């Protein structure tokens, strides 16, 4: 419960329509895609960096929690105001401030949707490579704070690789500028990369200088269906060893194919137990060569069908439908986004099968295989305490396997609150202690997204 004095001062900082205090209004800001529910006491909608600064300075003075929020599509609970206080929604900071084709730069406010950045870049022949499947409804502030990625990260990298500089406000209300406007620059520490992926725990991003990439001349697709998982996993390793880097290399296991067959009956051959969706891009000339090389790398063993696809739109629609389809059949899925080195994928995917059998937990696995990034979904009946406990034990062993294979617990969703208990599996105590020190420097009163990340 906030003090009336705090609320009165907050109201004096912002116009009336930029502050919500009604409980029902606040409920709309209590969730994200983790499906947990943590209502804030107040929601504020700053529209300038200065307003963000004033709100955070006030929260810092009153030691009131402030949780930054883009569009609430995060899956790790990062934008949930777990300790109440202020939900700091950046959704009204919607301006693209400049599009500078000569310098290949867009400067934008954090509430701009990823898709709007792509549209603004496209007319100049560019794109911004981070491409989460949620691009149409996630904000670049959220993308930056989680270092979001998508299918094209295998060739182009994640958000971290496509930002030149930021403006941000620290937990104690200081406005800082990080990075620069040029593609080269080594003055001072790289605070840009520190803030990207920090999940709103160090500073609130109020402006971003995004680095653009020229659109490829052409794109082409290949689909490969396999009769067994192990042949498919070996093909992934062979494809990634090619000199031609695919622009997307997506893997779908047999349970994913089953879901797709339900929605798109004619798309998948009857006996397929695993599938790869591969995209190559470049000049017209180079993509023919890349496509042929990829098809050869799919090999003969276990391959049911490998073919060139001219229109990839339907395939991508099927791939993007997977996450929502899963929600329909399993509202309480445990959804992870672990990463292992590509060469370890055959062992990892086999390990997943064994753990699923050992704990009798159904799972659906798909993802960005070219990065070794697999979305592991454990399907759980929320009414069954026994099943939930088996699923948690299974998850624990999956994480152990990931670490054993030199992987990482999250490739793109972040830690938030969902993976908080497991962070110690990956990060050793001295490194974790240093991270906590850094948090204290940026946010001495621990008001910014308190409790997130650290166990
Ligand atoms: C159907 C679906 C598909 C998805 N596919 C992908 C995918 O392919 N790849 C992927 O990476 N993710 C994916 N996601 C997850 C999610 O969309 C991304 O994490 C996205 O980047 C979150 O953006 P958001 O605006 O919704 O942020 P939110 O969920 O509101 O916030 C996410 C985190 O960022 C922080 N934050 C938000 N704005 C700021 C700011 N301005 N300054 C500081 N911190 C801030 C929040 O505190 C929180 O910790 C998917 C989600 C859904 C629902």
Which properties best describe this structure?
5-stranded antiparallel β-sheet, Alpha-Beta Plaits, globular, 455 residues, alpha+beta, 21% strand, binds flavin-adenine dinucleotide, 7-stranded antiparallel β-sheet
Summarize the structure.
The chain is an alpha+beta fold and 455 residues long. It contains 15 helices and 18 strands.
End-to-end Cα distance: 25 Å
Q: Helix proportion of residues, in percent?
A: 25-40%
User: Could you say what the CATH topology of the domain at 96-214 is called?
Assistant: Uridine Diphospho-n-acetylenolpyruvylglucosamine Reductase, domain 3
**CATH class bucket of the domain at 96-214:** Alpha Beta
User: Could you tell me the mean pLDDT?
Assistant: 94
> What small molecules are bound in this structure?
flavin-adenine dinucleotide
Q: What CATH architecture label of the domain at 96-214 applies?
A: 2-Layer Sandwich
Q: Strand tally, please?
A: 18
What form results from the Cα inertia axes?
Answer: globular
Biggest sheet, spatial arrangement of strands:
15-12-14-13-17-18-16
How would you portray this structure in words?
Strand 17 and strand 18 form a beta hairpin. The protein has helices spanning 4-13, 23-27, 49-62, 114-122, 140-146, 153-156, 191-195, 229-240, 254-263, 284-297, 313-329, 345-359, 385-404, 423-426, 429-442; strands spanning 19-20, 42-44, 66-69, 86-89, 96-100, 105-108, 126-127, 163-170, 175-179, 203-211, 213-214, 218-226, 248-253, 274-282, 303-309, 334-339, 363-368, 373-378. Among the domains are: 96-214, 2-Layer Sandwich (Uridine Diphospho-n-acetylenolpyruvylglucosamine Reductase, domain 3), CATH 3.30.465.10; 218-318, Alpha-Beta Plaits, CATH 3.30.70; 330-413, Alpha-Beta Plaits (2-Layer Sandwich). By secondary structure, the chain is an alpha+beta fold. The radius of gyration is 22 Å and the shape is globular. It has 15 helices and 18 strands. Bound molecules: flavin-adenine dinucleotide.
């Amino acid at each position: 419960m906030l003090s009336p004095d705090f609320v009165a001062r907050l109201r004096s900082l912002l116009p009336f329509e930029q502050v919500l205090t009604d409980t029902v209004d606040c409920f709309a800001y209590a969730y994200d895609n983790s499906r947990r529910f943590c209502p804030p006491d107040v929601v504020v909608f700053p529209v300038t960096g200065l307003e963000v600064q004033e709100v955070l300075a006030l929260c810092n003075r009153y030691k009131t929690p402030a949780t930054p929020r883009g569009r609430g599509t995060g899956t790790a609970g990062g934008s949930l105001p777990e300790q109440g206080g202020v939900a700091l929604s950046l959704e009204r900071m919607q301006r693209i401030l400049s599009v500078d084709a000569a310098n290949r730069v867009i400067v934008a406010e954090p509430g701009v949707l990823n898709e709007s950045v792509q549209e603004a870049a496209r007319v100049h022949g560019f794109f911004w490579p981070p491409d989460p499947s949620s691009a149409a409804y996630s904000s670049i502030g959220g993308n930056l704070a989680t270092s979001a990625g998508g299918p094209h990260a295998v060739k182009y990298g994640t958000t971290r690789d496509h930002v030149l500089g930021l403006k941000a406000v620290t937990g104690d209300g200081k406005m800082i500028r990080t990075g620069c406007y040029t593609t080269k620059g080594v003055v001072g520490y790289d605070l840009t990369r520190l803030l990207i992926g920090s999940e709103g725990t160090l500073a609130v991003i109020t402006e971003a200088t995004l680095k653009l990439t020229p659109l490829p001349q052409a794109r082409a697709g290949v689909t490969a269906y396999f009769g067994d998982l192990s042949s498919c996993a070996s093909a992934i390793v062979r494809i990634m060893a090619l000199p031609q880097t695919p622009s997307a290399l997506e893997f779908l296991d047999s349970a994913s194919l089953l879901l797709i067959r339900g929605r798109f009956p004619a798309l998948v051959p009857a006996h397929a137990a695993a599938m790869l969706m591969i995209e190559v891009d470049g000049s017209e000339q180079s993509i023919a060569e890349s496509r042929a090389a990829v098809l050869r790398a799919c090999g003969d063993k276990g391959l049911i069908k490998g073919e060139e696809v001219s229109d990839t739109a339907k395939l991508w629609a099927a791939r993007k439908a997977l996450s929502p389809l899963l929600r329909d059949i399993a509202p309480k899925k445990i959804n992870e986004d672990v990463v292992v080195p590509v060469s370890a994928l055959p062992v990892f995917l086999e390990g997943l099968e064994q753990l699923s059998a050992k704990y009798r937990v159904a799972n659906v696995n798909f993802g960005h295989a070219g990065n070794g990034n697999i979305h592991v979904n454990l399907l759980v009946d929320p009414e069954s305490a026994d099943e939930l406990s088996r699923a948690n034990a299974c998850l624990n062993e999956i994480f152990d396997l990931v670490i054993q294979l030199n992987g990482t617990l999250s490739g793109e969703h972040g830690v938030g609150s969902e993976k908080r208990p497991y962070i110690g599996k990956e990060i050793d105590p001295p490194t974790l202690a240093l991270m906590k020190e850094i948090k204290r420097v940026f946010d001495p009163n621990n008001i910014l997204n308190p409790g997130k990340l650290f166990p």
